[in-house]
Design a protein that fits this description.
Elements: E1 2-7, H1 18-27, E2 30-35, H2 43-52, E3 56-60, H3 73-83, E4 89-98, H4 106-123, E5 127-132, H5 135-144, E6 152-154, H6 161-169, E7 173-176, H7 186-192, E8 200-202, H8 224-234, H9 239-253
Parallel strand pairs: 1-2, 2-3, 3-4, 4-5, 5-6, 6-7, 7-8
Helix pairs in contact: 3-4, 8-9
Amino acid sequence: MLIDSHCHLDYEPMISDIKGTLARATEKGVGAFLTICTDLSKVPLLIQLADENPAVFATIGVHPHDAEKTLPEEELYHFLVQEAAHPKVVGFGETGLDYYYNHSPKQEQQGAFKAHIEAALECDLPLIVHTRDAEEDTIAWLKTVGQGKARGVIHCFSGSPWLRDQSLELGFYISVSGIATFKKAEALRETLKQVPLDRLLVETDSPYLAPEPYRGKSNEPAFVVEVAKALAILKETTLEEIAAQTTQNALTLFSKVRLP
């Protein structure tokens, strides 16, 4: 069994064919789905998806792109803590820092990130961290605000060996996406080789970043098997071993997940 640890089931085209999307993934051996929040306005829909589908679990959070448009830091913290009481809300995010696009000012991104980290500590739930061109600040905030106690995953990992090592030292997991299958991603594959099997997750980030051989198409959770296959080759092991280990890792990190 595989777990797609990061997908966006509320996005098109998946939300318009949610039954088909889940069925196709189930046929490929995907047994659970974490649908990840990017905008607080989507929280009711994500919780509805989780409530209606036993294998679907939700997170709540604000993408760094939207940090400027969300609640003020203190209100955001209280909102996150309140909504985390739902039994199928299993983590906070995706949150983090994105200095590549800078769709929100750095100060606003940092304030939102701080609220997520503090909520994660309060509720003992994991963080789903997005970081792009912001490795040093991301680790600094996890060390200072997170006091080295926050737990979580660096999602869709495409960073440096330094980010890998710092994240692992903090106890974070590394999530592998379809990027690892791209022909020009050799440097990333070399970086991922040094991540222990017991610290890896697999994800699609669907509908984005479809893996080979589906690159250029809309991604969906069924394609997470291609990520797992690529990881098996990289780690010189079997698909079955990757599936078993990444599933166990996801269940360890997202401890509120209860498989149907």
